[in-house]
Design goal:
It contains nine helices and seven strands. It is of the alpha/beta class.
């Protein structure tokens, strides 16, 4: 991803004569998005007398190289670095400059939309293999960025995230145990039915005698029948990001 841009830049520099009496030598390494190969390549580059890093692009490779670069006082310029962790310019990534998009702006936009609709609680269920053509564990990086922003900067929200498994039979259990009542609530549409003493009294005849109470019992006589009432009292709406990355369970 970086190599074509570097080649075009060298052609343009030579055409404009921006660096007379200087030569530009480019050393190329393929880190394969590997956190081990990347710093090894960086050490080889240092031994060859390198002056600047352009890339890596992949977050995992970039993190490793950008942590060593300040020790060598070398700049790192990359179109990658999506994760929010790269904002740390004081302790780890002092010489890193990111030139491309990042999760920072996406997170701020998404949380602004959620705040607009007054959804104070989020549970992100993410696909571990979603968007892997972009980056390994891409959806994890997205989800962790959103939740980190909530926990560190948004006192008006609470949130958490969980990885989905490939076994879809576990989804009902996840919704029941990980989402559950903690991230859901009663529908506001029931409120008007009980909003005044007069409306409460109107319900009285339905429960005014043991016989009438008994008439209601079959509706709640088993776990299966109780589950059937669930959709009337809870709301769990899903919103997809990036096609198949994660679902937001909101209240």
């Amino acid at each position: 991803m970086v190599e074509p841009a570097i080649e075009e830049a060298i052609v343009e520099v030579e055409k404009r004569g921006l660096l007379p009496f200087h030569g530009l030598n480019v050393t190329k390494y393929n880190t394969n998005c590997d956190a081990i190969r990347a710093p090894v390549a960086a050490f080889h580059f240092m031994n060859d007398g390198g002056h600047a890093f352009f890339g890596p692009v992949c977050d995992y490779s970039l993190a490793a190289v950008a942590r060593y670069a300040p020790s060598w006082d070398l700049p790192v310029v990359s179109p990658g670095g999506l994760a929010q962790d790269f904002r740390d310019k004081e302790k780890e990534y002092q010489t890193l400059t990111r030139m491309g998009m990042a999760f920072d702006s996406m997170t701020r936009f998404l949380l602004a939309a959620i705040a607009h609709y007054r959804w104070p609680k989020l549970k992100l269920l993410y696909d571990p293999d979603g968007q892997k053509e972009i980056s390994e564990r891409f959806c994890f990086l997205v989800a962790s960025a959103i939740i980190k922003e909530i926990k560190t900067k948004r006192k008006d929200m609470k949130g958490d995230y969980k990885q989905l498994t490939k076994d879809s039979s576990t989804y009902a259990k996840i919704l029941r145990e990980d989402v559950g009542v903690k991230y859901s609530e009663k529908l506001d549409t029931w409120g008007p039915l009980f909003s005044s003493p007069e409306k409460l009294d109107a319900w009285g005849p339905l429960f005014s005698s043991p016989e009438k109470l008994d008439a209601w019992r079959p509706l709640f006589s088993s776990p299966e029948k109780l589950d059937a009432w669930g959709p009337l009292f809870q709301v769990q709406r899903s919103y997809m990001h990036g096609g198949r990355c994660f679902q937001v369970q909101r209240s």
